[in-house]
Write a structure and sequence with these properties.
By secondary structure, the chain is an alpha/beta fold. It is about 50% helix and about 15% strand. It contains twelve helices and eleven strands. The strands form two sheets. The protein has an eight-stranded parallel barrel with strand order 1-2-3-4-5-8-10-11, surrounded by ten helices. The chain has a three-stranded mixed sheet with strand order 7-6-9, with no helix packed on it. The N and C termini lie close together (about 10 Å). About 0% of the residues have low confidence.
């Protein structure tokens, strides 16, 4: 089957009380690990590329890799632009064959955010491309996203209905206390489920997106450190909080930092235990296999999307 947009998979997720994992890709091995895991779990997935990933790997390379993944797996897969920062960047992705784009104009005023998001939606919908926008600002640092705690802000539920109606976007990323990167919390992880519940009441049956949702599993932090890495005080979103968010109308969950951590910890361990190896297929293969097993567990136990591929076709 060809690449799909997110419309059907989000309806299935909302009705079935699961979330679709949106996994950031940068190279072949990350993509293979994610897709192979989804194939074994028969789960729909979103493969997403940031502007930094596009700069690193080139947009045509990424598009062709994802086309190959669709052909090989037979899964419903959407190719999504993560954190497009302008109309021009979203247009670039639409024109390159992406089936979903995010316009992140959350750093602008509410009124300007509406105008920019609507412009993107009007253009993308001509090509059957779905559009995600963001209301509220997540703190953290990851790729082109760099928002201090002082500049972050929770989503205001009283604004979501007007925003969705005036922009015509297909899904909405909200800020409830998650953050980008691997260093999300200094104390106990907490999410504002009251904001999520109020947003859901105001925009019933509308897909809500959670960014900054990596778990930062401590066993992989320890593996990375034991094998020469440095990652002190890294802390993410516990899976039980993620499962609660999914039960409250979150249809898409973004995962990036976990992928980097899991993959790199396996590569570091491989180098330490196999100092004579210099073939990239050996150490990248170790990273790919460990990441595949991690993604399988995430799809099954945190997102609940295993077995739902057929519902999104």
């Amino acid at each position: 089957m060809p690449l799909v947009n997110t419309k059907k998979m989000f309806k299935a997720a909302y009705d079935g009380h699961f979330a679709v994992g949106a996994f950031n890709i940068n190279n072949l091995e990350l993509l293979q690990a994610i897709v192979d895991a989804a194939k074994e779990e028969q789960s729909p997935i979103i493969l997403q590329a940031s502007l930094s990933a596009i700069k690193y790997a080139k947009i045509n390379y990424l598009k062709k890799l994802v086309d190959a993944a669709v052909e090989d797996s037979g899964l419903p897969i959407a190719l999504h632009l993560d954190h497009g920062d302008s109309f021009e960047s979203c247009k670039m992705a639409v024109d390159a064959g992406f089936t979903s784009v995010m316009i992140d104009a959350s750093h602008h005023s509410f009124e300007e955010n509406i105008l920019i998001s609507k412009k993107v939606a009007d253009y993308a919908h001509q090509y059957n491309v779905t559009v995600e926008a963001e209301l509220g600002r997540l703190a953290g640092v990851e790729d082109e996203v760099n928002v201090s705690a002082e500049d972050s802000s929770y989503t205001r539920p009283e604004e979501v209905e007007e925003f969705v109606k005036k922009t015509g976007v297909d899904s909405l990323a909200i800020a409830i206390g998650t953050s980008h990167g691997a260093f999300k919390f200094k104390g106990e992880p907490k999410l504002r489920f009251d904001i999520l519940e109020e947003c859901e009441k105001r925009i019933r049956n509308f897909p809500i997106v959670l960014h900054g949702a990596s778990n930062i599993p401590q066993q992989f932090v320890e593996m990375l450190v034991e094998n020469g890495g440095s990652m002190s005080d890294a802390k993410g979103i516990p899976d039980e909080l993620l499962r609660k968010a999914v039960s409250l109308a979150v249809c898409k969950v973004n995962i990036d930092s976990d992928l980097r951590l899991v993959f790199t910890s396996a590569v570091r361990k491989h180098f330490k235990t196999n100092p004579s190896h210099f073939d990239p297929r050996q150490y990248l293969g170790a990273g790919r296999e460990q990441l595949k097993q991690f993604v399988k567990e995430k799809l099954k136990n945190a997102l609940g999307s295993s077995g739902h591929a057929k519902d999104c076709m």
